[in-house]
């Protein structure tokens, strides 16, 4: 009988550590649940998607660049790779990263081109972009998406820049998208890492879109020629065909994006100093273009504290006054030897052009991009293209229509 009475007593002693263990487990569960609630209470700011196809070595370099800065803000910017097609090297490389989500677009639907001479690749790329953005906006329900490609490196303040841009886009519905790229972002044409501009020309090459905008665009997405990396075309066709392809790209891109019912007078935000660098060089014919326009691009190396900056000057109501003030203060020059004249003036200068041909001539003298489409030169706002010369001084190329739109004196 005595032995039987000792058994419950021993069990009671064993229950004490078990109770402490139970309390400890419950506390840890509560802590974990609280963290989950906190995480769910702060949804991601934007998904980041790297569009890939068949360049595993480039993809490796891009992902490493993104991880360098994204790992610190991974909860705000979940990372995806969207592969078009079944290249096994790209798939294997993508799946080797456990910090991101892999998506694969397999398109077996036959392509019927609409115009003679078109390549099926145009249609394939268009389908991939639409599929990927539909997946991220509608299946994963992100409110914003940042689109990168598999041949890009990013700047230290890339994510801070887009967080500031997101806030700006939420405040101003006239901003259609924000880009990290400046077509005239070569080292000799930029200076200020804090400077941002509005543009009527879509910059691309690392850009952010809101779901509300995609709601408009997705049903109207073209069968071919959406936003396509120009290096893809150059890799396929070489430098000789580049300008022809460029015209085709912007013809169809503009048909989609710049039509009044889609564009609705909205504009794009771009930086002076690029927050992405494009390293995608392919083939000997591309080398000339790459060395002239892409290799000299300045990738920002300054950690700008964007959350401490007031970007109110970029909103629609303020920007016209702000920008026109900069142009009015610039000293007008004209005639021949414009580059020499601009170099010999201490402050900013402005140069009038009367039409596209004259713009191309002046742009060629300075060495900036000459192309424009649908009446819009690259990087232009209200027909005005701005770039730096000799580090700090600005040059404004001012169109005839800009004079009336911004109230600039005819001089």
TrEMBL record:
Sorted alphabetically, the keyword list is:
Glycosyltransferase, Golgi apparatus, Manganese, Membrane, Metal-binding, Signal-anchor, Transferase, Transmembrane, Transmembrane helix
- Enumerate the Pfam families for this protein: GNT-I (PF03071)
Kindly list the residue ranges recorded as spanning the membrane.
Answer: 12-30
Stated membrane topology is: Single-pass type II membrane protein
What's its EC?
2.4.1.101
Establish whether keyword Hydrolase is in the entry: no
GO cellular component term of the entry, any: Golgi membrane
Gene Ontology MF terms? alpha-1,3-mannosylglycoprotein 2-beta-N-acetylglucosaminyltransferase activity; manganese ion binding
The similarity annotation says: Belongs to the glycosyltransferase 13 family.
Name recorded for this polypeptide = Alpha-1,3-mannosyl-glycoprotein 2-beta-N-acetylglucosaminyltransferase
């Amino acid at each position: 009988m005595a032995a039987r009475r000792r058994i419950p007593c021993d069990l009671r002693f064993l229950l004490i550590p078990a109770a402490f263990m139970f309390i400890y487990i419950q506390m840890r569960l509560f802590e974990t649940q609280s963290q989950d609630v906190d995480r769910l209470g702060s949804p991601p700011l934007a998904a980041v998607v790297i569009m890939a196809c068949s360049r595993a070595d480039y993809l490796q370099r891009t992902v490493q660049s993104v991880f360098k800065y994204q790992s610190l803000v991974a909860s705000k910017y979940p990372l995806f790779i969207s592969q078009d097609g079944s290249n096994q090297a790209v798939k294997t490389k993508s799946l080797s990263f456990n910090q991101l989500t892999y998506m694969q677009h397999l398109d077996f639907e036959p392509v019927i081109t609409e115009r003679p001479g078109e390549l099926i690749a145009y249609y394939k790329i268009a389908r991939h972009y639409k599929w990927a953005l539909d997946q991220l906006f509608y299946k994963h329900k992100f409110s914003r998406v940042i689109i990168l490609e598999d041949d890009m490196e990013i700047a230290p303040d890339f994510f801070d820049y887009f967080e500031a841009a997101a806030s700006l886009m939420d405040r101003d519905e006239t901003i259609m998208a924000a880009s990290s790229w400046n077509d005239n972002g070569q080292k000799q044409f930029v200076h200020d890492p804090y400077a941002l501009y509005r543009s009527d020309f879509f910059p691309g090459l690392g850009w952010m879109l809101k779901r509300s905008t995609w709601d408009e665009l997705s049903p109207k997405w073209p069968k071919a020629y959406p936003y396509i990396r120009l290096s893809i075309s150059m890799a396929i066709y070489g430098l000789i065909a580049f300008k022809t392809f460029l015209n085709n790209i912007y013809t169809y891109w503009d048909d989609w994006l710049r039509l009044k019912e889609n564009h609705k007078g909205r504009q794009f935000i771009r930086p002076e100093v690029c927050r992405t660098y494009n390293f995608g060089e392919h083939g000997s014919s591309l080398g000339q273009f790459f060395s002239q326009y892409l290799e000299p691009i300045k990738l920002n190396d300054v950690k700008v504290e964007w959350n401490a900056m007031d970007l109110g000057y970029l909103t629609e109501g303020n920007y016209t006054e702000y920008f026109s003030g900069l142009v009015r203060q610039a000293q007008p020059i004209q005639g021949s030897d414009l580059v020499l004249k601009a170099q010999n003036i201490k402050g900013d200068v402005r140069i009038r052009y009367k039409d596209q041909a004259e713009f191309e001539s002046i742009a060629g003298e300075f060495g900036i991009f000459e192309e424009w489409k649908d009446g819009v030169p690259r990087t232009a706002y209200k027909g005005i293209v701005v770039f730096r010369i000799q580090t700090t001084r600005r040059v404004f190329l001012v169109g005839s229509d800009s004079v009336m739109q911004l109230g600039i004196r005819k001089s």
